[in-house]
What we know:
Blueprint: H1 3-11, H2 34-40, H3 44-48, H4 51-64, H5 82-100, H6 111-121, H7 127-130, H8 133-136, H9 140-160, H10 172-180, E1 198-201, E2 219-222, E3 227-232, E4 242-247, E5 259-261, E6 274-279, H11 287-300, E7 306-315, H12 316-332, E8 339-346, E9 355-364, E10 369-376, E11 382-383, H13 385-390, E12 402-405, E13 413-418, E14 423-428, H14 430-433, H15 438-445, E15 449-453, H16 464-474, E16 479-483, H17 486-491, E17 502-507, E18 512-516, E19 523-536, E20 542-556, H18 559-568, E21 591-595
Parallel strand pairs: 3-13, 4-7, 6-12, 7-8, 14-15, 15-16
Antiparallel strand pairs: 1-2, 4-19, 5-6, 8-9, 9-10, 10-21, 11-12, 13-14, 16-17, 17-18, 19-20
Helix pairs in contact: 4-9, 5-9, 6-9
Amino acid sequence: MKLNDIVKQILVRDIDDNSYSDFYIKQDNAKYSFFESEQSGKSLIQTLLWPMTSFHIIAYIFDTNDSYQGVVASLGQKTWSKRDREEAKEIGNEWAKYLSQSPIPRQSIPLKLHELFFEVFKERRPVGTEMQLSRLLIDENFMTNALKLLIASDQCARKIEHLLSRPKNPNLVSDYMNNISTDSGIKTLSEGLDSYGSIHVKTMTPQSGISINSLSHSIAYVKPGIDCFTLKGRTQKKNDDLYHVLILPWPLNIERDFFSIDTNPPLEMDPNNFGFFAYNNKEKITTEMVLYAINEAEKEVSFPDLVVIPECAIAKDESNLLAQELIDYFTSNSIHPPLFIYGAYDHSQPGQYGKNYLEFIYYDDFNNRNIRVDQPKHHRWALDRNQIISYKLGTKLTPKKKWWENCEINSRKIISYFDDDTHICPLICEDLARQDPIAPVVRSLGPSLVVALLLDGPQMKGRWPEKYAGVLAEDPGSSVLSVSPYGMTQRSTGLGYPPSSSVALWSDGDTTVSLDLTEKKVGISLALEKRSVEQWAADGRWQLKKALKYAGHISVGLKSNLDEIKLKVTVPQNIPVLPTAKSLDKTVLEKTIESSI
């Protein structure tokens, strides 16, 4: 296949789209300026001027042809040099200055940037042979310049990352961001089609092995097949070297009748060996309970930056109310809200599966409002004999069968949230343990923090959460927090183990620690050190990354006070259901716009 055909496939949605005059860069457009493009229609150079799109095209070519290793091996008779690296960095820095200028610059794009575009995307003669990608991938000049463009794009993205929100002053970054951002989120930072992969913000870079992930510090290429949504949040401005997470391992009590046989799912399996089960939290979680815990955490340690509640904690019909009341509270009191990540679920209906998903509430820095996003679970939990006995469920679910969770499994979607302090990817239980299809995406994105919501036993060293957290701690270098309900860890005694208070496990590559909830307390305030760590990309560039490392933790609140709050709460009548924003398509992540601060 020819290079220009690949570029066309990535950029043009409709085969009959004639908005581009051609898919080459010419020497005579070296004086191209952005203003000229507004008069002459779309051109390839205008599209390539957005670094996320240039990165997308080169990363797709390198990844699908497994040809990126040249940066640490050889490029024909040539090897990647310090001079190549410095030239790429210089081009990236000048590129970023051009895009960041306000008002929008009228001068030509940087000359070296245009020369690089030309060397990669020029029309080669004779067209029938020299433009074939297979020939170009063994051409040392093409490979050297393509690698320079990939690295320059990443360098530019690093310099303009702080502008990936709604800017006060107009510049080219804001123009491009307006083109790709919607109320349903940023599905890719590239203007290319996500059917050829997508581009997202990245934080951590793997420090061992070699993959396409090894070549960038600031933007990630995610292979097609996963709907990944980049969310840009706004943090509370405070002079604090610590990041505070409030863990609410609720419900604090789980009875065996929270689990039941479910005959609604339509999938027909061997009834002698398999069945479906349903889980229903009968210990209702209210806004007053959450606010009490936040206030206690603030009194004991600090106001939390993030609040985490485990898997399947809140039923769907209660989640809208909880989210709206939390936002209303912080808005009316002029308090910047923390991030919220909590597990939610919906009951099955005859012929329909239930749902297991997480809710993510954050203040959107681009749209300047509070937004609620959901992410589904990607793998069903299967209760086997040992788990049924361990959780003392044998009187509800026979140990002779394997019992599958009743949740639906649809398209694959993942949230990638970043702000000035951290970069978070949340997961649900089995998604942490199963390598496909989510784990490769997480490794590509390189979040500084992975938050795993579980409905599991004790979060202790030696169990499966530590094993899989260790994998992510090594590649790409993420810290991992897994959280399970206290009621579940207390229930895990059927195999002869004592009740456990280990409701969370923290792993950051340096420290792995079980977080125990003190008796008669309601939550754990986890303090994390904001530390800069040095990482290197495979091309030789180093960069300081924002990492979160364990600093300490303390249990907060009193269960007796929480019980009193439960008794005082009355259920409001005629609660309005929050509207859902329009989706990009039928399978896109649903987002609900709550209110403005």
